[in-house]
User: What shape does this take?
Amino acid sequence: ATSAWPLTCQNHGLLASPILLQIATIMNLRDVVVVIPALNEEMAAIDQSIFKAINSNRKLATMSCRGVRGATTVANNCREEILSGTRELLALLVRRNEIDPTDIAMTLFSVTSDIDAEFPALAARQLGWLEVPMLCGHEMRVPGSLPLCIRVMISWNTEKTQDEIHHIYIRGAKKLRPDLSKLPPVDWEELEKWINQQLAGGN
Assistant: This one.
């Protein structure tokens, strides 16, 4: 049988459980009738404990996996330039979006075919992303495309909506997405200090 929202219990001396009401709210169940035995004090206490546990983890039920894009360029196919440029890009993405690396599902890097001196994923490892699955690959060779470019796609579990995500394109990569290249003023010296702090273990 079904009834209109909110979740109800048939009125035959039976009691609706608060935890079931909470689960229904989180899962957006609209057409459900729950019938359970009347709860004694012991069952009510257990029910309340579960209620608190779910309420403390409510964040998980409202998360979506969002894609966060970014790109930058380097002047040369040089290991240190690849790593420093990637660290700079990731630092801006993390700070602008308030990304906690523990919420990252995976990260994909692509580079143009003229970059092969180092894997850009190493820069993320250097920043402490030790548990994040990553993959690097080469971008398609399209005639006239931007050279010496590093791109990243971060799959991030977050409560933010799609239009709250900030994608970042810097250096020569600004021309790829001029509409996404208008950053607030960046204190590059302060950003470099933050990056160095992460390299030192975040202390």
Q: What stands out?
A: The two ends are 58 Å apart (CA to CA). The chain has six helices and five strands. The first strand starts at residue 64 and ends at 73.
